[in-house]
Write a structure and sequence with these properties.
By secondary structure, the protein is α/β, with parallel strands linked by helices. The chain is 43% helix and 19% strand. Helix 10 links the parallel strand 14 and strand 15. The protein is globular, with a radius of gyration of 30 Å. About 1% of the residues have low confidence.
């Protein structure tokens, strides 16, 4: 019998900035679902990645003084680093700048154009750059973008359009015939009432006002609209091509579930299904629009010092503690909330006191009273039976909750078992039984039942807290560590348990908050203020001589210079800085030909941290002046000044 297949995806992260904790929730949620499916015997393919094109990226890169590709390379690397830090088990990480993806998107666009689903026209409307979306005046909310609330600006340009209305009735019928296509139910009603019933307008699927996108290969003035580009990642990641179908596509498509944020539900439940219909491809089985994670009741803001990043939390509390909060504190359909204080409270109450304390003292008692030698669990009275039934109930409850992606409900069942186990200790009082030789047999039953309950906790926690799960199962030397082993309470055979190790150390809230304030909140506020000053300068910022002394300026001779093949703006310079040769990349290609620079003496910032630009390392920076009319002039020195001479 063939193994059951399960294809699950996150939305691909937009590479405009480092993802905060709310963005990170999605990858952790999806990972927990994927891990559970693997435990249930499914052949899982878990896809994530980054969305890297669009006007917003082009503008941010320009402001940063780097190419769009260099910018998205850095952010995509940061996204992947955080996804890995959260111990997520994705099978494929796609980037929309991947060559294969770009070529297939061009083929898809051409196919849709040739069959009449895409046509050429002109767009006139209000455009929201952050959302990459056009709106009519009637769609605006208080004159702003109805999705993000930001200002919009008039835009008029030649564009290609997709005939959305052609597929509207077919999509409505599909949603009616597949009631679980969009979940939760409230999200489905929102899509039907707000978008489908009023009628779909044709969708702009190309742009000419910027260049950072996939070119329309038969009309290179246009680049493919970001959503047609981004959404197709779910099939290009599997090797789909209109001309031939890859093996992974045949094996895994249609997707079992797209896990996405509620803010991009329209694109995934209206645009994406219609694109697939036009291509003659099956629709995904389900789209799950999860809620947002807010800081208290607010959106996160650097100026308030309330933007929380997953890697900061991991550094302070550990990976599994962060995963636990995200998966247990987020409701299924309503927005969740996080503050540092809430995190610490939950950590102490549920991880340190309830779970960690249970495992630690039970393993310690097993070693203290019986040298770690434990029998198989058995039930002798009502207390034992109740513990057994709670464990079995936890198993069925977790499996049932995860069928609907309700991770908070699943973890509540697990913590309830830990709480019942702690209560069982209070009820049976092992320390009192240990004092009576005649009760030693009963004491062994009690500890065996507790160890078995802990085995259930270890196995059930595996999709959510994988490292903690492994530590628990190692401490009790568990023989059965899969879901099937939990079908009978007592299936864990007699064995010798290991050494007790603390899972989660209790935190002092006041001390922890002091550390958070010093290491995270205050630096974040200071950085936000610095950014505001850069955007709205108020005269020249004064620095002390000690600040200036940190910058090492040297004379350097340009030995060779050439254009960087991967960039239209960058020149590759090999310079002699007095100590040897180094490579410097400089964005001055539009103002200087390489031959103009060879042999010249320039000012080099010699102690600048190396940076990657277009995949090449740049070790330093040359000084240049901004001149009127957008001109730039490199600061050349007298050739008599030797390489390496310090400038002060």
């Amino acid at each position: 019998m063939d193994q059951k297949k399960f294809y699950i995806t996150t939305a691909i992260a937009y590479t405009s900035r480092k993802p905060h904790i709310g963005n990170t929730y999605e990858i952790v949620l999806t990972d927990a679902i994927a891990r559970m499916k693997r435990m249930q015997g499914y052949d899982v393919f878990f896809c994530t990645g980054t969305d890297e094109h669009g006007q917003k990226i082009e503008e941010i890169a320009r402001e940063a003084g780097v190419t769009p590709k260099a910018y998205v390379d850095q952010v995509s690397s940061e996204v992947r680093r955080i996804w890995d830090a959260m111990n997520t088990t994705y099978d494929y990480f796609i980037r929309t700048t991947d060559d294969y993806h770009e070529k297939v998107v061009q083929k898809i666009f051409k196919k849709l154009y040739e069959q009449g689903d895409i046509y050429k026209g002109e767009y006139s409307g209000m455009y929201c750059t952050p959302c990459e979306s056009f709106w009519t005046e009637s769609q605006l909310k208080d004159g702003c973008c109805p999705d993000c609330g930001r200002p919009v600006k008039p835009a008029k340009e030649e564009a290609y359009f997709f005939r959305m209305s052609k597929y509207q009735d077919r999509l409505m019928k599909h949603i009616e015939e597949h009631p679980d296509f969009i979940v939760p139910e409230s999200r489905k009603k929102e899509m039907i009432n707000n978008f489908l019933k009023p009628g779909l307008q044709d969708l702009c699927v190309s742009r000419t006002s910027f260049k950072w996108g996939i070119p329309v290969d038969f009309d290179d003035r246009h680049v493919v609209y970001v959503w047609l580009d981004a959404l197709t990642n779910y099939i290009t990641a599997l090797g789909y091509d209109p001309d031939h179908i890859g093996e992974n596509y045949k094996k895994y498509w249609p997707a079992d579930v797209h896990v996405i944020g509620k803010d991009i539900l329209r694109f995934h439940t209206i645009y994406w299904p219609i694109f697939l219909m036009a291509l003659g491809l099956p629709l995904p089985k389900q789209v799950f629009g999860h809620p947002w994670l807010l800081f208290a009741s607010d959106k996160m803001s650097k100026s308030k010092g309330n933007v929380i990043y997953a890697d900061d939390l991991v550094r302070l509390f550990g990976v599994d503690a962060v995963r636990y909060y995200l998966l247990s504190a987020m409701p299924y359909a309503q927005d969740g909330s996080i503050t540092y204080e809430m995190f610490i409270t939950k950590y102490n109450a549920e991880l340190a006191n309830t779970l960690g304390n249970l495992v630690n003292r039970t393993v310690a008692m097993a070693n203290k009273y019986f040298g770690g030698e434990i029998d198989a669990a058995s039930a002798e009275n009502e207390l034992d039976e109740d513990l057994k039934n709670t464990a079995l109930s936890a198993l069925s409850g977790v499996v049932s909750a995860m069928e609907e992606y309700k991770t908070a409900d699943a973890l509540q069942k697990i913590i309830a078992l830990a709480q019942r186990s702690n209560k069982y200790i209070d009820e049976t009082m092992p320390w009192a039984l240990a004092k009576d030789e005649a009760q030693h047999a009963r004491l062994k039953v009690v500890l065996s039942n507790l160890i078995e309950s802990i085995r259930y906790l270890g196995v059930l926690l595996s999709p959510f807290l994988p490292d903690t799960s492994a530590s628990i199962l190692e401490q009790i030397n568990a023989q059965g560590s899969d879901l099937a082993s939990l079908e009978n309470f007592g299936a864990g055979a007699a064995r010798k348990v290991g050494t007790a190790k603390a899972l989660f150390a209790r935190l002092d809230e006041a001390e922890t908050m002091k550390r958070i304030d010093a290491e995270i909140i205050q630096p974040q506020i200071a950085a936000a203020k610095a950014e505001q000053k850069e955007e709205k300068p108020e005269g020249v910022a004064l620095i002390g001589i000690e600040d200036f002394a940190k910058v090492e300026l040297r004379a350097a001779k340009i030995l060779s210079c050439e254009k960087l093949k991967k960039s239209k703006k960058l020149l590759r310079l090999i310079v002699n800085d007095g100590d040897g040769e180094r490579q410097v990349l400089s964005g001055i290609a539009q103002w200087y030909a390489p031959e103009e620079l060879v042999g010249r003496t320039i000012v080099l910032v010699a102690n600048l941290k190396p940076a990657k630009l277009c995949g090449e390392e740049s070790c330093g920076m040359i000084l240049a002046a901004d001149c009127p009319d957008g001109d730039v002039k490199v600061l050349f020195l007298d050739d008599a000044i030797p390489a390496g001479a310090k400038i002060r």
